[in-house]
Amino acid sequence: MLLLSAATVLVTNIVMAPVHAQNPSQPALPDNVQARVDDVMPDVVAWRRDFHQHPELGNREFRTAGIIAEHLESLGMEVETGIAHTGVVGVLRGGQPGPVVALRADMDALPVEERVDLPFASQVTTQYNGQEVGVMHACGHDNHMAILMGAASVLAGMQAELPGTVMFIFQPAEEGAPEGEEGGAELMLAEGIFDAMRPDAVFGLHVWPIPAGVIAVREGGTMASSDSFSITVQGQQTHGAAPWAGIDPIVVASQIVMGLQTIPSRQLNATTTPSIVTVGAINGGLRSNIIPDSVEMIGTLRTFDADTRTQIHQRVTRTAEQIAASAGATAEVEINLGYPVTANDPDLTRAMQPTLQRVVGDRLTESPLITGAEDFSYYANEVPGMFFFLGIAADDPEMVYPNHSPFFYADESALPVGVQAMTALALDFLSGP
Ligand SMILES: [Zn+2]
Ligand SMILES: [Zn+2]
């Protein structure tokens, strides 16, 4: 998950209403498959702790990728490494004909110094943007990788009877590539992972500070698109005591800030999706009595619908340019595209609901909208996708912190639920309705 601001909202606002009551007669997995899950769980816990203790930043997941590739190779898969810098893709071809399903985990850690008291806490430091920083799996991607390695073991163990193909995607740099580099899901796709073999569906999960073992999912827009913008207002410098002799870009910038807020509140259809326009910085001027030449503003745009996203871009540009024109100034607007909306395919999400319900029973809930962004969205823009949240919050509320916090803590009781969920989704999807 890129950007953490929404996590706290989810912690406090989640509604724990069950989507459906549990059917206790239906196990999550057939007994023989469940036995394989039970067998692999000690490994999953060990992998997760090892990754946690040895976190690596985006595009630098060298050790991590080596461990993953070795594991997938040991399971007899076709394995490709070095995709999008450090990405690993394993392909498991079942003994029976059937569709292709992709399961994705992200691999990168964050420049955060761990403050959790764990025997396997990270003490890793590295260079980031010219600074010495601590490194921590503060977004929980260590869990994602261990869960998917566990599911790989289980599914590889039943290769002969598997009706179709499973693609295991281990992706670097979800949190964004280092400055000046490309990375993440977009680069994995640009390097062709879906060209050689196009999945019929893709699934991914994110650990989240909701009660451990809860699964939350929703149809349609789930996590926001995240675009940034910059606006340069060009006026004309003059003495602060003689504003009529120039064009004041500070007043124009102020009008633009207010005007931008009318885009979500007055211009976009409020019944379609929530949207956010935030100006995060305004820079202009040096002295109390000089009106400067220009002002620069930067900010972020969030929404949950692809069409609305396009509309916001047009309206931010129009609003800034025309407010500036009304004062005789100009505004230059640049919009930098970030991650698209993470949208869960409605048919796929509905079809997989019974699967998730078998895994967690009445602990399956509807996820609220999350205003953070995820580059899983790129896969889900290519093929039908479903991204869901796996609760990892401990019972003790003092141990519950949002993703990206130096205190982020994942309760390991969620790990078997994650392995069950990924395994069951793959098996049910391949078996068809
Ligand atoms: Zn994150
Ligand atoms: Zn994340």
TrEMBL record:
The Mn(2+) ion enhances activity. Residues 228-324 form the Peptidase M20 dimerisation domain. This is N-acyl-L-amino acid amidohydrolase. It comes from Pseudohongiella acticola. GO terms for molecular function: metal ion binding; N-acetyldiaminopimelate deacetylase activity. Keywords: Hydrolase, Manganese, Metal-binding, Signal. Residues 1-21 form the signal peptide. InterPro entries: Amidohydrolase, Bact_exopeptidase_dim_dom, Peptidase_M20, Peptidase_M20_dimer. One of its GO terms (biological process) is diaminopimelate biosynthetic process. It comes from the Bacteria. NCBIfam families: amidohydrolases.
